[in-house]
C-alpha cells in the first residue's frame, strides 16, 4: 500500500484580491519505507506540499491519501489525532521545547499525544536516544547541545511514536555540510531500522543526492510529469 | 489529565522567572485583600462593640409602639405586670442569653440651683446593667467606676456637666413629670461624668432605677425597655428570630402584638456605617481581584506570545486543541493555587504578628484602642476560591488563543 497517494492536487492562497496557486495539478505516489526528497528553488511549493501531506494545510482541490486515509476530509481535531498517530515531523529550526530536556522532548508525543504508561515511555525514549546516538545526552537541555545533536533529537522525537511517515522540511538548512550528511545518513538508517518512510524537502543539490527518490518542483508543478526520479 | 498537570507543573518550574512574577502578583493581591478584610473587620467589630457593649445591648424589647414615639420618652408605653413577667420568663429560659437589663427611660429638668436644662435619663439596676453592657463603666471619664451607680446618685453626661459646670460630689436636682401629669423633684449627688457617644442613648445620664420610680411615683414594676446581651453575637440573627417568634407573637385581648423586639442594627444608626464599611470592603475586594485578573491575563498573554513556536510544534506533532487549552488553563490554575497559598500564609502570619504586637491607636477621643485583626475561615476560603477562579478565568482567553492557533503560522513565528 502506498504511504502517500496524491491526485490532481492543488493549493491556492488568497491574498487580498489575488489568488496565488502554490501547488498546481500535482500527482504522485510514495511507497512505504521510501526515502524521498522534494527539491526545488525557494517558493516552488515544497513546504506547502509537505504541509498538505502532514495534514497541517488542506488542499484546495484533488485527493490526497496518507497511510490509506483520505486526509482532505479531516477536521482540525481529527487531523491532529491523525498526525499524532501516523506522522512525525522534523523542522528546519529543530523546534525543540527549550524548557524540556532532550529526554523530555522525545518523550513529549508519548506523554501528551499517545498517553503511554511511564515504563513503556521510558523504554521507547531510551531506545530512540540510543538509535540516534544521544544515549548519554538525555539530561541536557536543547541550549546545551549542538545543532546537529538537536536535529538528532528531532529525528528521535519524530520516530518515537512509531510513525509510518516522517516529514522533514529543510532538515539540513541550518547545519554544516558534514553534519547535514550525518543527519541524512541517520534518517536513512532509521528508515532501514524502523521501516518508516522519510519525505524531506531541500534546495541543497549536494544533499539531494542522498535521496533514493527525487521529485522536482517548480512554480508549484512537478517536473517530469510528476514522476519520481529514482537515484 | 494527570499528564497535563504534570507537564503544566514542569513548565511552571522551568519558566521560573515568569512563574515567580505572576505568583508574586497573585500573592500581593491575596495579602492585600485578606489584610484589608481583617483590619477593616477589626475596626467594624470595635465600633459595634462600643455601640452594643456600652449602650444598646445586642437586642431590646419594648412595648409595641414605643420605638415610634421614642423621642418623647413616653411613660405610658412602659411594660408592666403580667406582660413584663412573660418577657422575663422567656428571657430566663433562653440559654443563649447572657444577661438582660430593665430600664426606665425618662426626660427631666436638671438644675444646679443656679441654672436649669433638660436631660434624658436611663434608670437602671446597676448589677443587671453592668452584665448587659459591660463597657458602660469605661465611659465614666471622671468618678468612681465600680458599681456603676447607687441610690441618690447620678452619672451626668459630659456635655451637660461642662455646660452646667457641675463636678463630682455636687448636688443637683432632677424635676420630672410623671405619666399622670404631676411634677416631682428629687436631689441627687453627682457620682461621675459620662462620656457621650453617638447613637440613641449615647448622651443620656444614668440614675438608679429605684430613684426613677420614686421621682416618677411609679408603684408598679413597669420598665421602658429591656436590653439583652447574647452569649454569642454571631448567633444574633437566629436568636433574634427565636425571640421574635416567642415574644413578638404575644398578643393582647384585641389580638394585637404587645411587644416589639429589635436588634442593635435597627436601633443604631451605626449599622448604616457598618454597611458602608462592608460595601467599601466589597469595592476594595473587587478592585484587588480585578488587578489580579488583569495581571494574570497580561502575563499569560505574554506567555502565549513567547511560546507561539512551542505551541506550533506541539500542535504539529499531534496535540489536540483541547489539550493545548487545558495545558495553559492548568498552568493558570496552578499559578493561582501557588500564589494564593503563599498569600494566605503571609496574611495569617501578618495577622498573628499584629495581634502579638498589640498595636494600639487613638480614634477620636478614644485612646489606646487595641487593633485586633481577625479573619474567618470562610473569608479565607472564599477569597482563595475567587482568586484561583480568577486565575483560571484569566488564563482562558490566552489558552483559547493558543489552542486555536494555526500550526503553520505558529511554526513560522520567530
UniProtKB/TrEMBL annotation, chain A:
ABC transporter domain boundaries: 4-231
Keywords: ATP-binding, Nucleotide-binding, Transport
Keyword ATP-binding: yes
Cross-referenced CDD domains: ABC_MJ0796_LolCDE_FtsE (cd03255)
One example GO MF annotation: ATP binding
A Pfam family of this chain: ABC_tran
SMART domains assigned to the protein according to its UniProt record, in alphabetical order: AAA
PANTHER family with a match to the protein in the record: IMPORT ATP-BINDING PROTEIN (PTHR24220)
UniProt-recorded name of the protein: ABC transporter ATP-binding protein
Organism: Desulfotalea psychrophila
UniProtKB/TrEMBL annotation, chain B:
Residue ranges annotated for the ABC3 transporter permease C-terminal domain, each copy included: 284-407
Protein's UniProt keywords contain NAD: no
Residue stretches making up the MacB-like periplasmic core domain: 19-237
Compartments (UniProt record): Cell membrane
Annotated transmembrane regions: 20-40, 282-305, 325-354, 375-396
Keywords of the record: Cell membrane, Membrane, Transmembrane, Transmembrane helix
Protein topology in the membrane: Multi-pass membrane protein
Annotated family: Belongs to the ABC-4 integral membrane protein family. LolC/E subfamily.
PANTHER family cross-referenced by the UniProt entry: LIPOPROTEIN-RELEASING SYSTEM TRANSMEMBRANE PROTEIN LOLE (PTHR30489)
Protein name (record): ABC transporter permease
Organism taxonomic ancestry: Bacteria, Pseudomonadati, Thermodesulfobacteriota, Desulfobulbia, Desulfobulbales
Amino acid at each position: 500500500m502506498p504511504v502517500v497517494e496524491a491526485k490532481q492536487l492543488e493549493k491556492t492562497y488568497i491574498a487580498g484580491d489575488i489568488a496565488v496557486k502554490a501547488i498546481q495539478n500535482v500527482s504522485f505516489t510514495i511507497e512505504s519505507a521510501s526515502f524521498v526528497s522534494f527539491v526545488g528553488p525557494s517558493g516552488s511549493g515544497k513546504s506547502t506540499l509537505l504541509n498538505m501531506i502532514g495534514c497541517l494545510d488542506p488542499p484546495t482541490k484533488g485527493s490526497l491519501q496518507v497511510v490509506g486515509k483520505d486526509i482532505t476530509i479531516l477536521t482540525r481535531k481529527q487531523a491532529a489525532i491523525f498526525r499524532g498517530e501516523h506522522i512525525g515531523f522534523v523542522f528546519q529550526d529543530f523546534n525543540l521545547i527549550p524548557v524540556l530536556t532532550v529526554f523530555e522532548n522525545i518523550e513529549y508525543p508519548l506523554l501528551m499525544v499517545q498517553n503511554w504508561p511511564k515504563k513503556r515511555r521510558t523504554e521507547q525514549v531510551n531506545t530512540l536516544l540510543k538509535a540516534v546516538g544521544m544515549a548519554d545526552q538525555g539530561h541536557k537541555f536543547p541550549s546545551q547541545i549542538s545543532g546537529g545533536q538537536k536535529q538528532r533529537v528531532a529525528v528521535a522525537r519524530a520516530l518515537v511514536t512509531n510513525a509510518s511517515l516522517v516529514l522533514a522540511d529543510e532538515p539540513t538548512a541550518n547545519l554544516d555540510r558534514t553534519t547535514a550528511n550525518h543527519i541524512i545518513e541517520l534518517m536513512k538508517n532509521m528508515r532501514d531500522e524502523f521501516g518508516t518512510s522519510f519525505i524531506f524537502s531541500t534546495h541543497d543539490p549536494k544533499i539531494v543526492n542522498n535521496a533514493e527518490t527525487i521529485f522536482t518542483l517548480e512554480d508549484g508543478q512537478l517536473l517530469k510529469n510528476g514522476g519520481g526520479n529514482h537515484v | 489529565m494527570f499528564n497535563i498537570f504534570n507537564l503544566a507543573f514542569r513548565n511552571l518550574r522551568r519558566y521560573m522567572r515568569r512563574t515567580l512574577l505572576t505568583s508574586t502578583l497573585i500573592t500581593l493581591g491575596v495579602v492585600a485583600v485578606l489584610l484589608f478584610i481583617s483590619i477593616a473587620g477589626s475596626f467594624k467589630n470595635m465600633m459595634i462593640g462600643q455601640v452594643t457593649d456600652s449602650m444598646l445591648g445586642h437586642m431590646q424589647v419594648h412595648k409595641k409602639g414605643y420605638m415610634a414615639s421614642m423621642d418623647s420618652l413616653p411613660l405610658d408605653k412602659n411594660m408592666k405586670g403580667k406582660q413584663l413577667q412573660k418577657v422575663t420568663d422567656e428571657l430566663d429560659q433562653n440559654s443563649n442569653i447572657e444577661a438582660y437589663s430593665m430600664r426606665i427611660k425618662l426626660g427631666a429638668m436638671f438644675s444646679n440651683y443656679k441654672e436649669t436644662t433638660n436631660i434624658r435619663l436611663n434608670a437602671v439596676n446597676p448589677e443587671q446593667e453592668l452584665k448587659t453592657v459591660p463597657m458602660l463603666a469605661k465611659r465614666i471619664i471622671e468618678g468612681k467606676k465600680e458599681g456603676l451607680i447607687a441610690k441618690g446618685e447620678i452619672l451626668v453626661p459630659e456635655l451637660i456637666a461642662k455646660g452646667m459646670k457641675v463636678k463630682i460630689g455636687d448636688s443637683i436636682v432632677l424635676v420630672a413629670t410623671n405619666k399622670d401629669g404631676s411634677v416631682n423633684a428629687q436631689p441627687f449627688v453627682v457620682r461621675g461624668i459620662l462620656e457621650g457617644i453617638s447613637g440613641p442613648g449615647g448622651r443620656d445620664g444614668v440614675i438608679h432605677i429605684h430613684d426613677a420610680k420614686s421621682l416618677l411615683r411609679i408603684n408598679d414594676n413597669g420598665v421602658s425597655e429591656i436590653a439583652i446581651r447574647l452569649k454569642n453575637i454571631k448567633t444574633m440573627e437566629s436568636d433574634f428570630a427565636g425571640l421574635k417568634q416567642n415574644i413578638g407573637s404575644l398578643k393582647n385581648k384585641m389580638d394585637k402584638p404587645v411587644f416589639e423586639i429589635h436588634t442593635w442594627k435597627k436601633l443604631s444608626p451605626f449599622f448604616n456605617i457598618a454597611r458602608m464599611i462592608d460595601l467599601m470592603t466589597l469595592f476594595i475586594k473587587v478592585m484587588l481581584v480585578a488587578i489580579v485578573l488583569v495581571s494574570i491575563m497580561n502575563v499569560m498573554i505574554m506567555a502565549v506570545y513567547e511560546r507561539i513556536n512551542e505551541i506550533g510544534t506541539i500542535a504539529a506533532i499531534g496535540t489536540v486543541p483541547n489539550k493545548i487549552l487545558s495545558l495553559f488553563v492548568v498552568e493558570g490554575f496552578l499559578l493561582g493555587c501557588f500564589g494564593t497559598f503563599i498569600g494566605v500564609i503571609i496574611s495569617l502570619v501578618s495577622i498573628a504578628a499584629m495581634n502579638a504586637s498589640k498595636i494600639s491607636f487613638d480614634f477620636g477621643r478614644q485612646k489606646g484602642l487595641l487593633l485586633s485583626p481577625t479573619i474567618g475561615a470562610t473569608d479565607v476560603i472564599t477569597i482563595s476560591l475567587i482568586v484561583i477562579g480568577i486565575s483560571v478565568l484569566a488564563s482562558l482567553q490566552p489558552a483559547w488563543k493558543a489552542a486555536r492557533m494555526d500550526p503553520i503560522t505558529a511554526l513560522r513565528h520567530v
